[in-house]
């Protein structure tokens, strides 16, 4: 059977014939290797092992390397270690429209388990931004394989390197008027049954955490209530903080303002917990509905937030729909397009608009890597807490 007829299979279940596993790839290096990899699959696994302790990064890197490897063997009938610069250009075009769709794209854009026969590497065409991200990750892969002595050269290093222009402004955020609409929708959620009350309290707390804390959705799922702690400032005032393990395994301290702590106590009381968390408590920051205390997955948290925005958009449709104005439709469409990360951008934008020092905003969100300047800003933590507490509020 010709190689091109092979169906895509997940990386962890993939077995390649000798002529496609890369042992004789034309781009293989012939010097001393720094990794014990005899073929392309083993080399990719060695690369992925570096990020195995970061679930989000591992899954993203696995997805992109898996897609390229499968495309190379199924579509081109050649090993990854024989890919040329021209092949990679063709692959980038392929990302924009993976064809034939029956082979590459999951039906209905649904995600299936990796051991499900309906699993496919793609859920649809990739946006221009996702295409760029994929190629950046693959460039990292090839560069690492060259450094490891596995490949002779990086076929992506020949690509034109375009200077990245900073966007003139953040556009994926909610203006205060739209943010007020979201809060109004949450305030109007039904609370007649115990389950409805639990759903309302969780929704309100999740939005509080995402907005006041500026947390990423992955940080909500990965951290616990035991990460809240207190310490006294220079004036002897006891202040609460949230110690967040974030992107790139970097830690940052997020000011847990008086308003945030009040909302935390409200949520914990609704769940039958003590108002304040204890040190080393393993309770997830956001709990499932019911008795389970397992942390919610990123997908589940995304689904909750998207449902909130969809509900708020529907409320706008019902309120403004009779007028049928283009402005009303645009407002609702903007909410329908919003995601959890919009709340992080909204938090940053609203803090900046509220005259919070931009250096403090940077530290609150954990945007910048540590620099010489930021080393001197650590002594200003108390100022950051006070300004965040005074100027960044949710106002339920």
From TrEMBL:
Any one GO MF annotation of this record: DNA binding
Compartment annotation: Cytoplasm
PANTHER family associated with the record: PHAGE INTEGRASE-RELATED, TYROSINE RECOMBINASE XERC
Species the sequence originates in: Paraburkholderia eburnea
Gene Ontology CC: cytoplasm
InterPro entries linked to this entry: CB, DNA_brk_join_enz, Integrase-like_cat_sf, Integrase_catalytic, Integrase_recombinase_N, Tyrosine_recombinase_XerCD
One GO biological process term: chromosome segregation
Name by which UniProt lists this protein: Site-specific recombinase XerD
Alphabetical keyword list: Cell cycle, Cell division, Chromosome partition, Cytoplasm, DNA integration, DNA recombination, DNA-binding
Stored PROSITE patterns: CB (PS51900), TYR_RECOMBINASE (PS51898)
Tyr recombinase domain ranges (all copies): 169-390
Keyword DNA-binding: yes
Domain Core-binding (CB) residues, every copy: 38-146
């Amino acid at each position: 059977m010709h190689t091109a007829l092979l169906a895509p299979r997940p990386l962890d279940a993939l077995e390649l014939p000798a002529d496609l596993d890369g042992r004789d790839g034309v781009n293989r290096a012939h010097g001393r290797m720094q990794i014990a990899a005899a073929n392309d699959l083993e080399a990719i696994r060695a690369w992925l092992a570096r990020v195995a302790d970061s679930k989000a990064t591992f899954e993203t890197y696995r997805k992109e390397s898996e897609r390229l490897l499968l495309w190379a063997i199924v579509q081109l009938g050649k090993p990854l270690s024989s890919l040329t610069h021209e092949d990679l250009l063709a692959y980038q075009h392929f990302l924009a429209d993976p064809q034939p769709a029956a082979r590459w794209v999951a039906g209905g854009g649904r995600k299936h388990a990796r051991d499900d026969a309906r699993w496919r590497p793609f859920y649809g065409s990739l946006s221009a931004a996702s295409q760029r991200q994929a190629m950046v990750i693959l460039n990292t892969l090839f560069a690492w394989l060259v450094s490891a002595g596995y490949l002779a050269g990086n076929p992506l290093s020949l690509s034109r390197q375009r200077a990245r222009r900073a966007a003139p402004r953040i556009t994926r955020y909610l203006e205060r008027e739209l943010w007020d609409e979201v809060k109004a929708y949450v305030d109007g959620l039904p609370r007649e049954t115990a389950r409805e009350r639990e759903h309302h309290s969780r929704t309100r707390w999740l939005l509080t955490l995402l907005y006041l804390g500026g947390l990423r959705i992955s940080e909500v799922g990965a951290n616990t209530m035991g990460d809240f702690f207190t310490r006294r400032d220079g004036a002897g005032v006891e202040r609460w903080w949230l110690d967040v393990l974030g992107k790139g395994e970097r830690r940052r301290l997020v000011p847990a303002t008086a308003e945030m702590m009040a909302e935390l106590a409200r949520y914990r009381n609704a769940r039958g917990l003590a108002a304040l968390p204890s040190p080393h408590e393993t309770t997830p920051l956001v709990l499932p509905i019911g008795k389970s205390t397992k942390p919610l997955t990123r997908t589940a948290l995304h689904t909750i937030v998207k449902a909130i925005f969809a509900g708020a958009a529907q409320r706008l449709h019902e309120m403004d729909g009779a007028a049928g104005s283009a402005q009303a439709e645009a407002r609702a469409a903007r909410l329908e397009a919003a995601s959890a990360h919009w709340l992080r951008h909204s938090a940053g934008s609203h803090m900046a608009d509220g005259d919070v020092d931009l250096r403090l905003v940077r530290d609150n969100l954990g945007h910048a890597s540590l620099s010489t300047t930021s080393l001197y800003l650590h002594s200003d933590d108390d100022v950051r807490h006070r300004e965040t507490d005074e100027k960044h509020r949710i106002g339920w």
